[in-house]
Each structure stands twice: as C-alpha cells, then as structure tokens.
Amino acid sequence: MVDGYQVDTGAHAITHLIEGPLKRLMDNYFDFLPVFEDYGHYYIRTENAFVKVPSNLKDFVTFDVLPRKDRLLLSQILTKAFTLSSFGIDLSNQSVYDFLPKKIFQRTPTILWILYQLFSLAGQ
Q1: DSSP single-letter state for residue 66
Q2: 60 near 54, Cβ under 8 Å?
Q3: How many CB atoms lie under 10 A from the CB of residue 69?
Q4: Distance between CA atoms of residues 56 and 45, nearest Å
Q5: Secondary structure of 70-100 in the HEC alphabet?
Q6: CA 12, CA 83: separation in Å to the nearest integer?
C-alpha cells in the first residue's frame, strides 16, 4: 500500500525489477525504495491442472504446456535477447514480432502463449 493505494507490480515480478519501464520510473522519480510484496508464483490453468509460469530459462525449458520444439526455439530467442541486452545493445525499439522467427506464428498454442505473455506484461 502506498498512501492508501495498492500498487500492483503485476508481471514486473517476473523481471524481479532488474530492468524495464517500472525500474526506470523508480530510478528517475522515486526518492525512496518501495517494499514490494512477494506474491509467490504465477499459475495458468490447463485442462488437467494449474501449472507454474516459468520465471527463468531452466523452468521455461521444462514448461511442458508448450511443445518441446517450440520451447527450444523460444529458449534460443530468449538467450539471444539476454545476451544482446547484457552486451549493452538496446532492444527497446525492436518489436517482439520482428524478434521472433516467422515459423513460430504457424503454431497456434505457442503464439497464443506469446500473446498472453505480451498482454500480461503490458499490464492489460
């Protein structure tokens, strides 16, 4: 709670506030460090169970909600993005669409997962 308002960090919990728009706002405009509640893990519902949403690359590789081939392809994309970012290459002007290989758009469950993540990260 901040002055009586509840602050929802939403998907920012996935990034652990290491970088991103919320982190930049805090660095530029806050003169204090807010204390965020640890909400634990996020889950999605499948036909048979609730499945923990992966928050690191190792968990993502074993995230069997998506087909193995797609997980491998997306893991390579995530690794590339992390590597470029760690070398100081600014990816903020590159769209997710441009970053993804076009063959991924032919895989309905995977593209729906990507769209869900984008929607969630956008705070929608």
Answers
A1: S
A2: yes
A3: 10
A4: 19
A5: HHHHHHHHHHHHHHHHHCCCCCCCCCHHHHC
A6: 20
How many angstroms separate the CA atoms of 43 and 23, rounded?
24
Q: What is the residue type of 95?
A: S
Nearest to 16 by CA among 73, 52, 74, 55: 55
pTM recorded for the entire structure? 0.61
Cα Dmax for the chain: 48
Taking only the tens of pLDDT, the chain with its 124 residues reads: 556 765 555 555 555 566 666 777 778 888 877 766 666 777 888 888 888 888 788 888 888 888 888 888 888 888 888 899 889 888 888 888 888 888 777 777 888 888 777 776 665 4
* Dihedral over Cα of 89, 87, 20, 111: its sign: positive
Hey, what are 13's tokens?
A: 């919990």
